[in-house]
TrEMBL record, chain A:
SUPFAM superfamilies: MetI-like
Organism for this UniProt entry: Micromonospora saelicesensis
Protein localization: Cell membrane
Protein name, per record: Inner membrane ABC transporter permease protein
One of the record's GO cellular component terms: plasma membrane
Automatic annotation (TrEMBL), chain B:
Species of provenance: Micromonospora saelicesensis
Bias type Low complexity, positions: 1-12
GO biological process, one term: transmembrane transport
PROSITE patterns registered for this protein in UniProt: ABC_TM1 (PS50928)
SUPFAM superfamilies the UniProt entry points to: MetI-like
PANTHER family: ABC TRANSPORTER PERMEASE PROTEIN, INNER MEMBRANE ABC TRANSPORTER PERMEASE PROTEIN YCJO
GO CC annotation: plasma membrane
Chief site of localization: membrane
Alphabetically ordered keywords of this record: Cell membrane, Membrane, Sugar transport, Transmembrane, Transmembrane helix, Transport
Protein name, UniProt field: Multiple sugar transport system permease protein
UniProt cross-references to Pfam families, sorted A to Z: BPD_transp_1 (PF00528)
Similarity-based family: Belongs to the binding-protein-dependent transport system permease family.
Record localization: Cell membrane
């Protein structure tokens, strides 16, 4: 504006220059987007393409997404020659149980920490914060020790029970419950509803967004969980998908690289999370955003 | 315990006219503990108790037979720790090698993923571009997939006749045998300037049982492929954090500096970067904390090979315990790693707490918290 009133004669040239620059910026922007779009998505394209190839074809043309000839042999062998169906079943069982457990227990604890006044609440919350800082990988040996000691090693209970609650989930729920106006609950309590009743039928329905977020995070987390299954079970009948997949790669297949088979198995293991990601994308994206935006 | 609380509260409330109020309090006291009980039991039993158990095991020579908590298990004091630092031997050499590997890994992964994440966020945040949400999702998608499944894909990409080498072949470059190549990248660079074997000054005498030449190896070619995978999977998450930070930069500030004649680079350097400094700090520290925990990828892709150049402390502790059945040493390595990560976490929390005194609890934890609104 200031420029315009200052020297009107120079304005058209400058505007043109700016338009050209905008165009160049835009072109560069799209070029960058497309380039990185390829970098981040093409590996999945390669994965799908090569899962449908024959082994020699995959070795000769690894970059090509088009199978020639197209074959389902890899997938047939996944179901006929490996324990994939078993791993799938185990993964489903573990994921469903862990997700239900986390959503229920984390909400209960989150509600108590947000709303109920009880002795030791402050200390407990501090403990939750502290527990979130404990890195998972240093728990490998500790978890094995306790499962072994409790006789839960090599059992479904060992796979599921230690994952039934998580500190981060408690934190998410606590933060959310604190954002709900307290008046509704007070009305319910005055009407004589018990604490649990108030929680269950008044507060929880209002917490739907947080519950969806927690469900998704728990599902994704337990579906992909690998180190825990590594130290909690040894029996191949109890392998979950990531564990079975890792086992395939480390050579249980026998001779040959068998990349089409491995890529196909990895693909099948990725599909559930991919579907959830596409359907509930805004929950994923919003979560990650919310961690660092303004308070 | 529950009944005790109840009685105590009831007695306290029994005095005087505030009786009914005391009743509600005691009710809440009991309910509060009941509500948190499942979480306390699970986290206590499978997180706190095991850490204490492992602390004990790290002071013994338990080999996995029977229970580690009987008198039969030899107690060795701090020996498992001292052999990692002060005694010359295989344990120290392996541990120091794993530290070296992980230091190089952190030194590349953290800057690379931070720069890439910021770059992607800047492009996706550009107001002039359309279709941004699609690309934002595309960049983020690898972050939500299974680390094992994605490692399988990268094993194929980096195979000898894999996609990466095919791509390099187009450029006329003969790609290496990624997962068989233990040569350090810095050694390769030294080789380019004619230094192929260690000069006498570096051939021995380095700290902690590794020669200076070994310390200066750089990440191996095999490690580079793991680094590529990790940068590729984590950048999306950090991009989202940067995006959130960028969205807090007031548009007016950007416009004002444009009117003042600031160039694009100047605006980025003197307006945007200072405004998102807290986010950058968060991304850098989260990156460092995460990079010391690399495990899944090593397990699937390289198992510490070739020539131990992808060994990391996390993987070494696992291998020492579950393959060599030396649970004491394995646990000791875990605790050293624990210490490294806790120190990084404390530094981060201290700095964030100072910054956020007016808005408590922000950034104390990672991403994924719905905001109070």
């Amino acid at each position: 504006m200031a420029v315009l009133t200052d020297r009107p004669a120079a304005a058209p040239a400058r505007r043109q220059q700016r338009a050209a620059r905008t165009l160049a910026t835009r072109f560069l922007g799209y070029a960058t987007l497309v380039f990185f779009g390829l970098v981040f998505l093409y590996p999945f394209v390669i994965q799908i393409g090569n899962a449908l190839k024959t082994e020699p074809d995959a070795a000769a043309n690894p970059l090509s997404p088009f199978p020639d000839p197209l074959t389902l042999a890899g997938f047939e062998r996944i179901f006929a020659g490996t324990n994939f169906p078993l791993w799938l079943g185990n993964s489903l069982l573990v994921t469903v149980l862990v997700t239900i457990g986390r959503v229920f227990f984390d909400s209960l604890a989150g509600y108590a920490l947000a709303r109920l006044r009880f002795r030791g609440r402050g200390g407990l919350f501090a403990a939750v914060i502290a527990v979130m800082a404990v890195p998972g990988v240093v728990l490998l040996i500790p978890k094995f020790l306790v499962l072994n000691q409790l006789g839960l090693y090599n059992s479904y209970a060992g796979l599921v029970v230690p994952l039934l609650a998580d500190a981060a989930g408690v934190f998410i729920m606590k933060q959310f419950f604190e954002s709900i106006p307290v008046s509704v609950e007070e009305a319910a309590r005055i009407d004589g509803a018990s604490i649990f009743r108030t929680f269950w039928s008044v507060v929880l329905p209002m917490a739907k967004p947080a519950l969806i977020t927690l469900t998704i995070l728990s599902f994704q987390g337990s579906w992909n969980e690998f180190p825990h299954s590594l130290v909690s079970v040894q029996d191949p009948d109890l392998f979950t998908l990531p564990r079975g997949l890792a086992d395939l790669v480390s050579g249980s297949l026998g001779k040959g690289t068998q990349y089409p088979l491995k890529l196909g198995a990895a693909l099948l293991a990725t599909i559930p999370v991919a579907i959830i990601f596409v359907v509930f994308q805004r929950y994923f994206v919003r979560d990650a955003n919310d961690g660092s935006d303004k308070g | 315990m529950a009944t005790e609380t109840l009685t105590a509260a009831a007695t306290a409330g029994g005095a005087g006219p505030r009786r009914s109020r005391g009743g509600i309090r005691s009710n809440e006291n009991l309910a509060g503990w009941l509500f948190v009980a499942p979480v306390i039991v699970i986290l206590g039993l499978f997180l706190l108790l095991p850490i204490l158990m492992a602390l004990w095991v790290s002071l013994t020579d338990w080999n996995g037979q029977g229970s580690p908590f009987t008198g039969d298990v030899p107690f060795v004091g701090a020996h498992n720790y001292t052999q990692l630092f002060t005694e010359d031997g295989l344990a120290r050499r392996d541990f120091m090698t794993s530290l070296r590997n992980n230091i190089y890994y952190v030194a590349i992964v953290v800057p690379a993923q931070t720069v890439l994440a910021l770059g992607l966020a800047l492009v996706v945040n550009n107001r002039m571009l359309k279709g941004k949400s699609f690309f934002r999702s595309a960049f983020y998608f690898p972050s939500v997939t299974s680390s094992v499944a994605i490692s399988v894909v990268f094993l194929f990409l980096f195979a000898n006749s894999g996609a990466v080498n095919a791509l390099l072949g187009f450029l006329g470059i003969d790609g290496p045998e990624w997962f068989a190549d233990s040569r350090g990248v810095l050694h390769l660079l030294f080789g380019v300037v004619g230094v192929d074997s260690p000069p006498a000054a570096l051939a021995d005498g380095g700290p902690f049982g590794l020669t200076w030449w070994d310390w200066l190896a750089g990440p191996s070619v095999a490690m580079i492929s793991i680094i590529t995978l990790v940068v590729w999977t984590t950048s999306g998450t950090f991009m989202l954090m940067f995006l959130a930070g960028l969205q807090n930069v007031p548009v007016t500030l950007d416009e004002a500096s444009t009117l003042d004649g600031a160039s694009r680079w100047q605006r980025f350097r003197y307006v945007t970067l200072p405004m998102i400094r807290p986010t950058t700090f968060l991304v850098l520290t989260l990156g460092m904390i995460g990079s010391w925990q690399v495990f899944d990828q090593v397990y699937v892709m390289s198992q510490g090979d070739p020539a131990k150049t992808t060994l990391t402390p996390a993987y070494l502790s696992y291998r020492t315990a579950f393959r060599d059945f030396d649970y004491g040493s394995g646990a000791a390595i875990s605790f050293v790693l624990f210490l490294i990560i806790i120190v990084l976490t404390l530094i981060q929390r201290r700095a964030l707490a100072e910054r956020d005194t007016d808005r408590p609890r922000r950034g104390l934890w990672r991403r994924r918290v719905p905001e109070r609104s």
